[in-house]
Amino acid sequence: MSKSLLPQLPTGPAEPTERAPTDWTTVAMQKRIRRRYARERRFRFFGLAAVTLSAAFLAFLLITMVANGWRGFTRTDVALPIDFPASGIVVERAQLATRGADLALAGAGLENMVKSAAATAFGPGGEEVLSEHAWLRVRDAIKADPSILDRKITIDLPASTEIDQALGGKGTAAAEAAAAKLQQAGVLSRRFNADFLHESDSTDPVAVGIWGALKGSLLTMAVTFLIAFPVGVLSAIYLEEYAPKNRWTDLIEVSINNLAAVPSIIFGLLGLAVFLGSWSLFGYQFGPLLPRSAALVGGLTLALMIMPVIVIASRNAIKAVPPSIRDAALGIGASPIQVVFHHVLPLAMPGILTGTIIGMARALGETAPLLLIGMRAFIVTPPGGFTDPATVLPVQIFLWSDEVSRGFIEKTSAAIIVLLVFLLAMNGLAIYLRNKFETRW
Amino acid sequence: MNAFALLFLVAGLGLIGWLTARARANRFDRGGARRLHSLPGQHGMYVAMWTVLPALLFVAVWSAVSPGLVKEAVLQHPAAAQLPQFDFERDALLAEARRVANEDGAAAFDPVAQQLAAPTRDAQARYRWMGTAAAILLAFAGAAFALTRVRASFKARSRVERGTMLLLLVASLIAILTTLGIFLSLLWESLRFFQQVPITDFLFGTHWSPQVIDAGDPGKSLGAVPLFWGTFFIGAIIAMIVAIPFGLMSAIYLTQYAAPSVRKWMKPILEMLAGVPTVVYGYFAALTVAPAVRDLAVSLGYTYASSESALAAGLVMGVMIIPFVSSMADDSIAAVPTAMRDGSLAMGATTSETISRVLIPAALPGVVAGVLLAVSRAIGETMIVVMAASGAANITLNPFESATTVTKQIVDLLTGESEFDSPKTLAAFALGLTLFVITLLLNIVALRVVKKYREAYE
């Protein structure tokens, strides 16, 4: 505060002012005070309401997701009696141990056999009770234990979406009736659906899983980290420790600050135009540089997006290292590079890692740029490498949310729960790192 | 995978170079009475740098140049004489031949492309082989050159440090390159768009229906005013009506009233609102909020209420922005000198009077800047509007009607199956350029306001 703002003190003897002190006991004054205090309470209440309502909205969102999603982790099984010897299914036992087992069993008419077994067990139309993929489970059971081919067994098979939904109270009238009949027969059971965690996308909501999308996310995040982390940290070091103050470094600063605020969808357009578009250079026509909808392209795009976040966080962490450390290292003869890489960087690392994890969490939840570069294909097999067609968890959520079948609602919410758990874990790790390594100099 | 193998090979050579140089430098140390200028590890780094960097640089240049060389080689093939002379068609056929050459079991529709597949594969293999050999040769040459220089008196450390400095500079230039890349790629595609559609039609036209584009006058159905209005209506009006009071009042309550323990818990909880992925908000908006808003509209007497109303998207977007406004307001209130607050309280004002007559007016520039940043974030937000808003471009003031936004249209235009050069896809880039320029301006103004305001109190 500058001096001129200080009140002017009277210099000479003050003129006595003729003014009666305020009488606070009069009715008018009391009323005025009451009014002011009421306004104070009202204001305070509004503040409290704003905080509470915001938190309530978050709680409402999470509760809705969990309420919709918990059923997505379970499935309804139907106990189906199958009489293998009577079914007339012929398979070479020797083949079951080989790689051709799947083909042999499919060729032997297993799918139709399961359908007719369902029809005998539950009456005409009984195959509607089972999921289209139910016979695959029978196939796996036979492969695991070929001896069941000689007996009559009862096996738990996934129920169809209609039955599953009817049990949740969201099915059609016909399905509700069928489900009630099955329930009375005591063949229905609900259990944890482990397939949801290691299957991939499918057209049938009962058979979908998130492993393909999760693996795509992991590959994409790996590319993002490998590019954004070194580049971000190195440029933060340069800007904070070595950069001379001139027009060029100002330009770098301005572009980093602005990049941090560019909408994510713009990065999708960049990825589309640069990595996937075709352009010519020196008269040579270049096709798409990278395969479409690959984890590599997605990772590169997201890396450009979160790099400014990492740069800004790293600069703050480096700035927080006190100059005395640098002076001491320089004083005993370290070179400027050694000062930074041996002393400043290790001390700033916890802060840098915290910022990086927060940036990675943002990249993990990002959808829009990946939609634009084409990571929205229907992908049934998990990607095997960085250049295979892949999708990621948020995009998978988006794709499922577009599906008409009601069964997808709970699967979408279940996938959201998985995504939120990952994000929560990452943010928790960031907070833990910050608290554990935070140094007060 | 070949590229990865090459990278690993070069990295391995670098490691070998490092070990060799270090071992040599160690021998110097033991043998002679003269002291080394640099540590053995620094000699190692010097050799490793010379091994890896030239080879990697060459690989980068080669992968940019070799597609052109492959094309030249394929054009020499006799079958290439049948290719159409016209550039665009010829490139399409060559691209098809490339696809057949690289994918197992792919077949070409065009017989010429099918014929050219084999020569393309040969040429690719040849140039890839040449590139690999040259890269490895360069790695060896670099290593040999550097190893001959490893002497006791050699100043390896300063060389390595100069190299490191260069690396740091290059890393920080990537930010500029990205900005330039964004700007140039958007500008380039937009210029192509404006060659087909007059810029005035795009900026001032009030009719948007990209599904039916009249080839004779594409500008007639590509007027973006309804999109600009929808974006402004959802992002800057409805969302802000939610976010500003909630964000501001939360910030005031948490900084001025709440007990430290409450603040410690509530602040991270509010920040969690910003950490929820936008696709989750979008799903929530479409699944829960939009039907509720429609029911509300029906009960208010709108019989044909849309289930993709502007209000549903705007409300959810506003909630998403709350923590953003709140933390900006928090910062600017905290920056007001305590003396002003204490002075007001000492004069007998209540806390709320102090806040609304002293703190908020003093913090107003910061709050306004925060709101500008929040608006820029809201109009760039994509997933909520993609999932909850409609594609129908209306100019309306009724929040229960549907409105569409720039980001929603970009996604719609680019995710359909259409050619890359049609006015439809190019329009997406023009919209992107508009969005980029507007958010950039908002940010520059906001940052300038914040900076000026901060100086006022320092």
From TrEMBL, chain A:
Keyword match Protein transport: no
Pfam family, one: BPD_transp_1
Principal location: membrane
GO molecular function, one term: phosphate transmembrane transporter activity
Membrane topology: Multi-pass membrane protein
GO biological process: phosphate ion transmembrane transport
SUPFAM superfamilies tied to this protein: MetI-like
PROSITE patterns named among the record's database cross-references: ABC_TM1
Residue ranges of the TM segments: 45-67, 218-239, 259-282, 294-313, 347-365, 412-433
GO cellular component: plasma membrane
Subcellular location(s) of the protein: Cell inner membrane; Cell membrane
CDD domains, alphabetized: TM_PBP2 (cd06261)
Keywords tagged on the record: Cell membrane, Membrane, Transmembrane, Transmembrane helix, Transport
Domain spans labelled ABC transmembrane type-1: 214-430
Family as reported in the entry's similarity comment: Belongs to the binding-protein-dependent transport system permease family. CysTW subfamily.
Protein name as annotated: Phosphate transport system permease protein PstA
Primary gene name: pstA
TrEMBL record, chain B:
Main localization (coarse): membrane
This protein's UniProt keywords: Cell inner membrane, Cell membrane, Membrane, Phosphate transport, Transmembrane, Transmembrane helix, Transport
SUPFAM superfamilies, sorted: MetI-like
UniProt cross-references to Pfam families, sorted A to Z: BPD_transp_1, DUF3708
Residue ranges occupied by any ABC transmembrane type-1 domain in the UniProt entry: 229-446
GO biological-process terms attached to the record: phosphate ion transport
A Gene Ontology cellular-component term: plasma membrane
Similarity comment text for this entry: Belongs to the binding-protein-dependent transport system permease family. CysTW subfamily.
Record-given protein name: Phosphate transport system permease protein
